Amino acid sequence: MFDRSSSSIKTAFFIRVLPLFFLTSVCFLIALANYELERAKKDHRNDLQKTTHHIAELLREPLWQLSERLYTEILSAALNRSEIVCVRLIQEASVSPPVERGECQNQYHDQESFSTEIYYDLGGKKAFLGSLIIQARVSDGWATIKRQLYILASLSVVLFILLAGATLAAFNSAILPPLRHISASLKQLQDTGQRQPVNWSSPDELGDLIRVYNGALRHQTIIEDKLEAAREEAEQALENLQHAQESLIQAEKMASLGSLVAGVAHEINTPLGNSLTITTTIGSSAERISTKVANQALTRHDLNIFISDISEASAILERNLQNAATLVRSFKQAAVDQTSEKQRNFNLKRLVEDVLYTLQPQVKRTGFTFQVEIDDDLWLTSYPGAIGQIITNCVYNSLRHGFQDRDHGIIRFATIDADTRHVVFTISDDGCGMSPDVLHHAFDPFFTTKFGQGGSGLGLNLVYNLTTTVLGGTVKIWSEENNGVTLSFTFPYTPHAEAKG
Ligand SMILES: Nc1ncnc2c1ncn2[C@@H]1O[C@H](COP(=O)(O)OP(=O)(O)OP(=O)(O)O)[C@@H](O)[C@H]1O
Ligand SMILES: [Mg+2]
């Protein structure tokens, strides 16, 4: 905290201005004293010169009349003036020798000589009578001006006090109140964030400052209101976006389920078609045999052929129906898993194979193959639906993006035991890979390089969310251009119940 009394503007002003004023007054007094001293000395000299003339006037008559007693008396009387130390009268040598009164031997530095010549007027003609020289102490004049200086100094002190008082009053009435108002308003702004306009008006610079300050406060309030409105709008937009994202994710789920159904229906068609053909063949064979039996034309050979056809047909039928049954089982499991979000105990390898089975139609009769390198005995108590969705999305991505413009490729599924509680499951392809920029944004919602071509950009975001929230794990992605993509999932064998989002 500052010591307000020592750091106030008032103190700063007094510290800076008053000594200046004091020094100016002292200099002014000294200059004035000097001037007055010189003037007093000059007056004194004039005065002494006049006195010399005056004495000379007085001496004229006695000198003319050669009245020695009179003029020596006048000379002695001249010494009555305290500053006159010596009076010397030099007459024409023929008349008499010089007459001196007072101390005329030495002339000290504070003494000066004043002289004048004495003439007698003889009706237009002047007769020289002699010279008068007065030696006198010229006073330093200090005594004369001392009083004046005392008055001046007292006046200065009074002026000084008046000026200080007036300055103080000016500060207290015109400068400090508006400053205190501004300071209080700023403090309120700092402490509570409240904008309190300053209630002060004056036609000076401080008034201008307060007007500008109030204007700035108003302006800031308007800007903040606008910002608040923009923030609310942004929040609303974000909420809408989240809703849109949720419905898109739901739509994505349904779409993948739809394509699963379409694929399985297509797959089931083949064994069912085969079975139908076989049953038709069996039907016509049975009809042929029954005709022969009715006509009593049935031979042992016919019966043997019929039996062999029937057993071959039943083998084919069994194979085809077995295929259809397997397909239905996988489909049922995958469909149930993908629609329900139940935690259950399952074998990871079998789950992967079931899901891939449903995806077979996508790769059949193409150069793309699946490669599963998962331990047969790897059992998890987790969410198979989430893992199924992850696999489906990754396979679709490899087929759509990684193997775009290619006719062959491998999608590999593998696991390693990370530790006793976690498994690391990787899905990789050897496709075209991602550029660093795509890699950087791969998990971002709505990021797709297939915008306008059916890509919503939610696939990998869904993969990320399922891994982190449902499976309670983490996912990392590696990729280089032309070097495929690897997604590595680390998740617990048994996610805690609370990990499910
Ligand atoms: N295996 C892959 N190989 C190359 N690029 C990939 C691969 N998987 C994803 N990508 C890139 O990552 C982007 C984001 O993938 P994501 O699955 O999130 O969206 P999408 O496949 O474009 O759209 P959606 O999955 O919603 O139909 C893709 O647009 C693609 O550019
Ligand atoms: Mg995708």
Automatic annotation (TrEMBL):
<keyword id="KW-1133">Transmembrane helix</keyword>
<dbReference type="GO" id="GO:0000155">
    <property type="term" value="F:phosphorelay sensor kinase activity"/>
</dbReference>
<keyword id="KW-0597">Phosphoprotein</keyword>
<dbReference type="InterPro" id="IPR036890">
    <property type="entry name" value="HATPase_C_sf"/>
</dbReference>
<protein>
    <recommendedName>
        <fullName>histidine kinase</fullName>
        <ecNumber>2.7.13.3</ecNumber>
    </recommendedName>
</protein>
<feature type="transmembrane region" description="Helical">
    <location>
        <begin position="12"/>
        <end position="35"/>
    </location>
</feature>
<keyword id="KW-0175">Coiled coil</keyword>
<keyword id="KW-0812">Transmembrane</keyword>
<dbReference type="Pfam" id="PF02518">
    <property type="entry name" value="HATPase_c"/>
</dbReference>
<dbReference type="InterPro" id="IPR005467">
    <property type="entry name" value="His_kinase_dom"/>
</dbReference>
<feature type="domain" description="Histidine kinase">
    <location>
        <begin position="263"/>
        <end position="495"/>
    </location>
</feature>
<feature type="transmembrane region" description="Helical">
    <location>
        <begin position="149"/>
        <end position="171"/>
    </location>
</feature>
<feature type="coiled-coil region">
    <location>
        <begin position="220"/>
        <end position="254"/>
    </location>
</feature>
<dbReference type="InterPro" id="IPR003661">
    <property type="entry name" value="HisK_dim/P_dom"/>
</dbReference>
<dbReference type="InterPro" id="IPR004358">
    <property type="entry name" value="Sig_transdc_His_kin-like_C"/>
</dbReference>
<dbReference type="InterPro" id="IPR003594">
    <property type="entry name" value="HATPase_dom"/>
</dbReference>
<keyword id="KW-0472">Membrane</keyword>
